[in-house]
Design a protein that fits this description.
single chain, about 375 residues, alpha+beta, BirA Bifunctional Protein, domain 2, 3-stranded antiparallel beta sheet
């Protein structure tokens, strides 16, 4: 099925697509058209092997594993990095089919969106993404939407400022990004570990509190002596991380003052201005240095207001996250009022992705995806026939 046919079948005309792409173009975002067939490795590396069962895979003559693109963020980012403009400010829009196994739902569906690379004015760029996302919903006649926002950089700053073992910090950040019930997980991690000794408990005790580099070196040396590079399919890195986690868990519970601070932080929610005030009070009370992350949030809120977004109607929550490891800061979802399960638009900041894709230096990046199916079900494209 061609893109034109898919658009026509979804809306009965291309009017809404024209309006959507025109709004993106007017904002300075050039339409990108990345290849449908993509290397599978970046998707597997960034999303984990669990995504394999959702991909449509093949192998070329050289043995490289390829897939039909399951989304457009990574393909657009790869094309930007290969363009010779890597590191320079550049913005791209897109509208096209993606391919992903989704149970009883069609495996081919449309995705639209924007990706912005290289802008150093992060707060302004974040606000622009939210404003353009709201314009996208307006193109479908959906003007009364619920705005949900969060900022994983705030949580990362809090965890970095707390006096915790490195493995505790990695564990908590990983659980936050993966959208588990973090409070429940923290409670579980404060309990005493199961009683009983084993033959390597002394090694675990020696590792407690070590940094990851030291643990990785030890495990690599031990495995080299044993003449193996993996055990049960797990790599040296995975085994080292497991040793570190177990040693730290056995060394004692998460400090109660840290637990109380994390719980207080995760309870902060409301409109962004209220959240900023609560976060500054938390920083003052705990004497934790998270000021830079709070300042970034406050600056973003100011740019949002400057773009005409009523921040009083915007919900901010410190516990909000989209469940993806590569987000590094601002995250948001737009939902239709009364239909809060599937987002209309979702996105955020992912500054770490570009180096993971091969950039030699960090490149700021922020963007969003438009869920065309949900928009079509709940809205009425502007200019469509009655």
């Amino acid at each position: 099925m061609t893109v034109t046919a898919a658009i026509s079948g979804a809306a009965g005309s291309a009017t809404w697509a024209d309006a959507l792409l025109l709004s993106f173009a007017q904002a300075g975002y050039v339409q990108a058209q990345p290849d449908i067939l993509q290397p599978a490795e970046p998707f597997l590396d960034l999303s984990g092997e669990d995504i394999r069962k959702s991909l449509y895979l093949t192998t070329d003559a050289s043995g490289e594993e390829l897939c039909l693109r399951p989304d457009l963020t990574i393909p657009v980012a790869r094309d930007y990095l290969a363009s010779g403009r890597a590191g320079e400010p550049a913005g791209f829009s897109y509208l096209g089919p993606v391919f992903r196994y989704r149970g009883g739902q069609p495996s081919q569906f449309l995705q639209a969106g924007i990706e912005s690379f290289g802008r150093q004015d992060r707060a302004a760029a974040d606000a622009e993404m939210l404003a353009l996302a709201l314009e996208a919903t307006s193109a479908f006649g959906l003007n009364n939407v619920e705005i949900r926002t969060g900022d994983v950089a705030l949580f990362n700053a809090l965890i970095d400022a707390l006096d915790l073992y490195p493995v505790w910090k990695r564990r908590l950040i990983k659980d936050f990004n993966r959208k588990v019930s973090l409070t429940d997980d923290i409670e579980r991690l404060t309990l005493a570990t199961a009683p009983g000794r084993n033959e390597y408990e002394g090694v675990l005790a020696a590792l407690a509190g070590s940094d990851r580099k030291a643990a990785l070196a030890l495990v690599a040396d031990l495995m080299s002596i044993a003449g193996t590079t993996n055990v049960g399919g797990r790599t040296v890195d995975e085994i080292a991380d497991r040793f570190l986690e177990q040693s730290t868990l056995k060394s004692g519970a998460l400090p109660r003052d840290a637990l109380a601070t994390i719980k207080r932080f995760l309870a902060i929610a409301g409109d962004p201005d209220e959240a900023v005030a609560q976060l500054r009070a938390l920083a003052d009370d705990t004497k934790l240095n998270i000021t830079a992350a709070i300042d970034q949030l406050e600056s973003r809120v100011g740019f949002m207001a400057a773009r005409g977004i009523d921040t009083r109607l915007t919900r901010f929550s410190t516990s909000f996250g989209r469940g993806l490891d590569y987000y590094t800061g601002f995250e948001f979802e737009l939902h239709a009022k009364g239909n809060g399960i599937e987002p209309l638009v979702a996105g955020g900041r992912y500054d770490g992705l570009m180096t993971q894709l091969g950039a030699t230096a960090p490149i700021p990046a922020v963007g969003f995806s438009v869920w065309i199916e949900t928009m079509m079900q709940l809205g009425k494209p502007v200019g469509s026939a009655s």
